[in-house]
Amino acid sequence: MKKMGVGLILALLIGTNSTAQTNSELDLKQVLSGKMIETKGFGGITWMKDGESYSCVERNPQTGGMELVAYTAKNNARKVLIPSSMLMDKTTGKQLGIRSVIWSEDNTKVLIYNNTKRVWRYDTRGDYWVLSLTDGMLRQVGKGMPESSLMFAKFSPDASKVAYVSKNNIYVEDVASGKITSLTSDGSETIVNGTFDWVYEEEFGCRDGFRWSPDGASIAYWQSDTEGTGVFDIINNVDSIYASVIHFPYPKAGTANSAVRVGTVPVAGGQTTWIAIPGDSRNNYIPRMEFIPESRELFIQQMNREQNTNKVWIAEVGNEIPANIFTDTDAAWLETNDNITWLKDNRYFTWQSERSGWRHLYRVSRDGKEITPITTGEFDFIQQTGLDIDKGLVYFIASPDNYTQRYLYSAKLFGKGEVKRLSPLEQSGQHRYNMSPTGKWAVHTYSNAVTPSVISMVSFPLHKTIRLIEDNKLAAEQYKSLGLSPKEFLKVRSGELLLDAWMIKPKNFDATKKYPVIVEVYGEPASATVQDVWGGGDLWNQYMANLGYIVVSIENRGANTPRGRVWRKCIYGEVGTFASEDQARGVQDLASQFPFIDTARIGITGWSGGGSQTLNCMFRYPEVFQTGIAIAFVADQRLYDTIYQERYMNTPQNNPEGYHKGSPISHAAGLKGNLLLIHGTGDDNVHYQNCELLVNELIKHEKIFSQIAYPMRSHGISEGEGTTYHLRKSMADYWRKYLSSGGK
User: What's the confidence (pLDDT) of residue 62?
Assistant: First the structure.
């Protein structure tokens, strides 16, 4: 439920070709084609072991085949590591396709991933090939397995073996001989080894479910038993004259989870030692597990079902009894703790916590008795970017003064908590970094809402620009030539609370007239919409603005912005209530600030969680919002999954009032305006069931509404020829019909 909305729009709009557009109305098909603004990125690189160069896949202009090349960070010297001639399948005589490559630790071998298949949202099944740079040997891994069935293949630490998952079992293959050893054999439709069920993948970001031990002698892995978890069915009526049914385990809020455990098994084969972590395996989660460097010990995070307690366990390979070394708690909820770094010969580890009221990085002693802040101050540590262990520095993203922006800072791992800003003062907006493993170099991407990405190579610790990689000058010229109204950032009030917001005005705006407003909302705790970052020109919203609307987005309480713990967690147990209140109050305050806003013509729209907020606003504040378009929404919070919904709301059994208040379906009788419901019938994330139940409730209350159901489209409603255009054209037409456009 957390990944749609603005993210979908951006994916649609970033293109590769130029088409001039100078009339007052943008052309919708051109907008959706992604060909109006040519924004170039710089993704798909892998830093090499030495931290002085990076590799990427490029097409050879002579042969037309793909090759693997390396560039030095210092002087951009190019070297072909694997020519296209080495990537030929001798059996078929064809060039190998490349989805991605994975280096061995010593950079002497690569795993080539291709023929991929989608598993829910990601291409995580496919074929793998091993190529040795020392002798040029190329051969397929997992021969004899079903085609495109391998998942998460990776080298052993010494690159002599490859482990992978196929059909929910884990295998190890000797690179030299091709001998395959089965480490598990009980994998089935209900027993999942080495990967995860739907809800762990969606809400904990868990996909790759096994780890090599540093000595290469063992593998640790997750096992999920989905038996007993509620099974949801999606009916496919479009691919055959008879319907087919897709069955998959999906634990809805308050129902039984899969039973998840972790264990270790010798690479040579044998019995798994299951780690006896206390607690009911269906009412606790194990979202993270990694080996401690250069050891045979696992560092395991275990969250209770309420996700307000995270117990850290250390377990030794072959020993089923773990030791609890550290426990973190919060009165609301905790996030998983990623980017754990071990320091001083594994005597300390890093940990992110909000115990001070702000998210900061801490240094914790191995016994858990000493916890010392690495960063301090009234700001949030947003994300770790890299480390320079030799200099004792951690690099991270923060934004103390402007919550819509992002900047790079550094702090000493064994300092006094002081931080230093490194991103240039004159570059106002958002900064991203792909940093080398040594912390000496980084690919730096800078942008803001009206500035396409500027990409450069920088050196540290001084943040010195070494060379420009991409200035996106063409994209900037294309954007400027459209003559669009720039996105304006401003503040609005919800009572005494000051909220961030942005506004886009029509191209031929006249401040003496009154204009309708469309509010673009998300509002859930998982993401944020008011961000000063390049979004391909934000052409969909610009398109709507140029039809004669003011497009606005307001960041309500609880949104995932770096404003401290209280801001984010005040909505605990109240998801949906504070958000709709802030949206209503915010747009009213906006109208009081700007007389050109027509309070009789206020619309609101959102996707996923934003669709839910749209419904809550329409039902709870009908005097404010006259028209709404809700897409792929949760109508009843009891229908969404355990991990996401219970994180912010506890269970329906423990918080029945909160679930009732926050669910739009509870307030459907309040609808007075115009409402369009849009949902894909094949949505595995937010089930079409939400739409059907809401429709029933609206009918019961004699409410008139409009609805579009997209057959077998998933949560993104993007599959199928013409779908995206149809959806956006339908939205635009609905706005023009029910929320009259233009200044009056």
Answer: 85
Residue type, 657: E
Q: At 64, is the pLDDT very low, low, confident or very high (cuts 50, 70, 90)?
A: confident
- pLDDT of 145-159, one tens digit each? 999 999 999 999 999
Number of residues assigned to the chain: 744
CA distance 175 to 131: 10
The β-bridge relationship of strands 218-225 and 191-193 is antiparallel
Rounded CA gap, 449 and 537, in Å?
A: 7
The three-state (H, E, C) secondary structure of 279-308, written as one string: CCCCCEEEEEEEECCCCCEEEEEEEECCCC
Distance (Å, rounded) from C-alpha 304 to C-alpha 283?
Answer: 7
Task: Please answer whether residues 583 and 519 qualify as being in contact, where contact means their C-beta atoms are separated by less than 8 angstroms.
Answer: yes
Active site residue 166: no
**Does residue 13 register a pLDDT over 70?**
no
The C-alpha atoms of residue 615 and residue 612 are separated, in whole angstroms, by: 5
Between CA 522 and CA 576 the distance in angstroms is 11
Catalytic site residue from 683, 684, 687, 741: 683
Which residue of the set 53, 213, 453, 608 is catalytic? 608
Position 119 scores a pLDDT of: 87
Residue 174 known to be catalytic: no
CA distance 153 to 163: 5
The dihedral through the CA atoms of 159, 161, 164, 170 has a sign that is negative
Calpha distance 529→242 (Å, rounded): 42
User: CA nearest 115: which of 135, 89, 90?
Assistant: 89
Q: What distance in Å separates the CA atoms of residue 580 and residue 523, rounded to the nearest whole number?
A: 8
The whole-number average pLDDT for the span 527-546 is: 97
> Using 50, 70 and 90 to split pLDDT, how confident is the model at 26?
confident
Residue % of the chain over a pLDDT of 70: 97
The first and second tokens of residue 42, run together, are: 């710089």
Q: Which entry of 444, 463, 687, 715 is annotated as an active-site residue?
A: 715
431 carries an active-site annotation: no
Three-class SS string for 684-741?
Answer: CCCCCHHHHHHHHHHHHCCCCCEEEEECCCCCCCCCCCCHHHHHHHHHHHHHHHHCCC
702: left (phi over 0), alpha (psi -120 to 50) or beta: left
